[in-house]
Design brief:
The chain has 384 residues and is mainly α. It has one domain. The chain is 73% helix and 0% strand. The protein is built from 18 helices and no strands. Helix 2 packs antiparallel against helix 3, helix 4 runs antiparallel to helix 16 and helix 9 crosses helix 11. The longest helix is centred in the C-terminal third of the chain and has 34 residues.
């Protein structure tokens, strides 16, 4: 077997590139399709590594901290769960987590900007198309908090927030928006989706991100956001009532005060490595189990993976932002807008993580890991 020829004519890599397009487009359209493609991409990468005896593996700056996080994330699962159960839980999630390595081993540093712009374009298209379900639920079925084709309102809220932020930072990019009118139309549709989900955390995260855009010198987008949001408050009573709950956040916690109190009590029982991934139904009281998650990514990691997993996540998070800021300082102007958009998307996601988040959400988690992979490939490009 000629390894050099295999690496040169890597058809599996070409297949992965095509699948990545479908994957980014389908994120908010089909939960099953997005997860299936993510798992398939991971298996293709594994096959490529086997065929080339590991020679095709590409090292990037965030590989080690990301790998450590994955290991410590699942240590307790193998400690406290039956071996077969632990393998099933870890196996499913590692396939999704490994989308990071799919990105770093599929996209060349020299083509990372072009490919990422295509991914963003597909995400915007998917978000607008997926929003049809939300508008249908509101208009026809009378649903107060609509979801997308791929799931409930929380998924649609965070995905539309990320897509809105990327659109705002890239509004002058003619590879995505052919003119300002197209940008305005798509931006308003996505903003409408974000508003009707009534997700206070997503609203707050989006405002934080748009403040970064304002500091960058573009005040029009935040002004547009405020005008549209104010109009929604004036004419849509459910939106107004939801927004008014922010005046007394302690009273309107959606049960988080009770969930978080029990979470901290359980954390101190196994503080080092945690209770294991998907342990909530085993350790939480019956009243808390109905919530399915601990309603905070930070608590979720702390309880499931302990201090060890939480510290690994914090180190990885610090390095993500460190790399993003380094890229902002050292990339060309056209590409800098993209990096700003990705960085601000991370700001939004980390803010939302205080009240919910993406770590246990199958579609949003693979998007999160994919964005980390893009940053890691970009860092490789800069170092070259």
């Amino acid at each position: 077997m000629d390894i050099k020829n295999i690496l040169k004519n890597d058809k599996l890599k070409d297949i992965s590139k095509v699948l990545l397009y479908i994957y980014f487009f389908s994120l908010i359209l089909s939960n099953t399709l997005a997860q299936g493609i993510a798992g398939g991409l991971s298996l293709i990468l594994l096959l490529r590594l086997i065929i080339t005896r590991g020679r095709c593996f590409v090292r990037t700056p965030l590989d080690i901290p990301f790998g450590i996080f994955i290991i410590l994330r699942f240590v307790s699962t193998f400690i406290y769960f039956e071996p077969l159960d632990a393998l099933e839980i870890a196996g499913r999630r590692v396939l999704l987590y490994s989308t990071f390595f799919v990105i770093t081993n599929t996209i060349e540093p020299g083509e990372i900007y072009r490919e990422t712009i295509r991914y963003v374009t597909l995400m915007i298209s998917g978000c607008v198309l997926g929003g049809l379900n939300a508008f249908y639920e509101i208009i026809v079925e009378g649903v107060e908090r609509p979801g997308s084709f791929a799931g409930g309102y929380s998924r649609l809220a965070e995905f539309s927030a990320i897509t809105l932020i990327l659109s705002a930072f890239l509004r002058n990019n003619r590879k995505i928006f052919i003119n300002n009118a197209v940008f305005l139309l798509l931006f308003l549709i996505i903003l409408a989706l974000l508003i009707v989900t009534q997700s206070r955390a997503a609203w707050g995260g989006t405002i934080l991100a748009l403040l970064i855009l304002t500091l960058k010198g573009d005040r029009k987008i935040l002004a547009l956001f405020i005008i549209v949001f104010a109009l929604a408050l004036a004419v849509l009573p459910p939106i107004r009532e939801r927004a008014l709950t922010l005046l007394d956040p302690v009273k309107y916690t959606s049960g988080r005060d009770v969930i978080w109190k029990e979470a901290m009590n359980l954390f101190f029982e196994k503080p080092i490595f945690g209770n294991g991934v998907k342990s909530m139904k085993l350790i939480a009281s019956s009243d808390i189990q109905k919530y399915n998650t601990w309603h905070s990514d930070y608590l979720q990691i702390l309880i499931e993976s302990g201090i060890a997993g939480f510290m690994a996540y914090m180190v990885l998070s610090f390095l993500i932002f460190y790399k993003c800021f380094h890229l902002i300082k050292n990339t060309e102007r056209e590409e800098r807008d993209l990096i700003y958009g990705i960085t601000s998307s991370f700001v939004c996601m980390y803010f939302i993580s205080f009240f919910g988040g993406h770590i246990v959400e199958p579609v949003l988690s693979i998007l999160f890991f994919s964005l980390i992979g893009i940053v890691s490939v970009y860092s490789t490009k800069l170092s070259n």
